[in-house]
Structure formats: C-alpha cells, structure tokens
Design brief:
About 25% of the residues lie in helices and about 15% in strands. It has about 120 residues and is of the alpha+beta class. The chain has a domain at about 60-110: Factor Xa Inhibitor, CATH 4.10.410.
C-alpha cells in the first residue's frame, strides 16, 4: 500500500494547513504598536499595555553540571573520572567521586546562568 503524500491529512493536517499559510506573521506580538481611538484622540496601544517583565532563560548545560545549595554555595563534580581509569588507584577514584565546592571567584559566572536557582 502506498503511503499518502505528506501534505495530505493522513496524520492530521500535515505541514501545509490553511491556518499556517494565511496567518499574519506578527498578529499577537506584544511589541506591536497599534493606534487606538478613544474619544477622538489617537493613542498608541503599545503605550497603554504594560510590557511583560524580561526574564533570562536557564542555561541547561550549566544546570546539568552545577547545583546551588541553600546557603548559596555552588557544587560541581570533579574531572578525571571518565576514562583511563586502569592507571588510577582505587583511592584516587573514590576521592574523585566526591562532589567539590566551586571556588568563589567562579560563582558569579555560574549563578548568572542559573537565574531561578
């Protein structure tokens, strides 16, 4: 049995539906300024509506590597425990498995990439 063409509605619309083709590009954009008439005066709509608070996104690469404690310290894992382990002693591998505290000179750089931590 032949598979239908991908633009058909075999799985619910495909990628060429009418709503995607004819939708205006910036219909609900918050920075769009539209003139608004109130009592014969022209007022800009963008100036009436408050702008949303700009928030930074969490850098996921940083979130996977570091953890912030309740007191504000930053914890990190130690390097040297991925490969070439046969040449390292058991004591050294055990000590490398422990979590280390990040130096305070690097804390600001990590914390600015974790705004919600």
């Amino acid at each position: 049995m032949a598979r239908p063409h991908r633009s058909s509605d075999w799985w619910g619309g495909g990628y060429r539906t009418i709503s995607r083709v004819f939708r205006p590009a910036a219909a609900n954009h918050e920075s769009m300024i539209l003139p608004l008439r109130i009592a014969g005066l022209s007022i800009l709509y963008g100036l009436l509506m408050p702008k949303p608070i700009a928030r930074r996104k969490t850098k996921k690469a940083v979130a996977k590597r570091f953890k912030i404690t309740g007191s504000g310290k930053v914890l990190r894992s130690q390097a040297g425990r991925r490969h070439l382990l046969a040449s390292k002693s058991g004591k050294r591998k055990r000590q490398l498995a422990k979590i280390a505290v990040l130096d305070r000179t690097d804390e600001a750089r990590i914390k600015e990439n974790l705004p919600f931590a």
